[in-house]
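Report of the visiting student (M.T.), summer placement. My assignment was to run the structure pipeline on a short list of targets and document each run. The first record concerns 6-phosphogluconate dehydrogenase.
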Amino acid sequence: MESSELTVKRRKSKFGKYLTMLFIFIILGLGIYIYWNYFYTYSSGNRFGLLQKFSHKGNIFKTYEGEMILSSVRGYNNVPIASEKFFFSVQEKNVADQLMNMQGRYVTVHYLEKNGTLPWRGETKYIVDSVKEQ
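After the run finished, the structure tokens were exported:
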């Protein structure tokens, strides 16, 4: 009788250890996933171009969103022939205020590229953290 009770206790303790380890692995995996997708900086760099649009928008979370025209090939009289757009978000109000005053001008921005977006951080993976007028 005593040996069967001991066997049941061992099974319960093994099952409890298994559940605890499973819970730890799930929490650890979830933490790594969240960090990798939303907080890890995939790349950083600078972009130069014409600041075409900058706004403060959103329904629940108001974020600063911007759009630059990056001209890669210039033609006669320095007119851009081939260009692409660079969409970005801004978290810091002082950087946003600087960008609001620089619309229509050529600027260089420093950005951090994340793997994913968060609603309160902005619509894009590119987060601008500083700006210089050219």
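Residues 1-39 form one domain. The helical segments are 2-39, 93-100. I thank the supervising group for their guidance throughout the placement.
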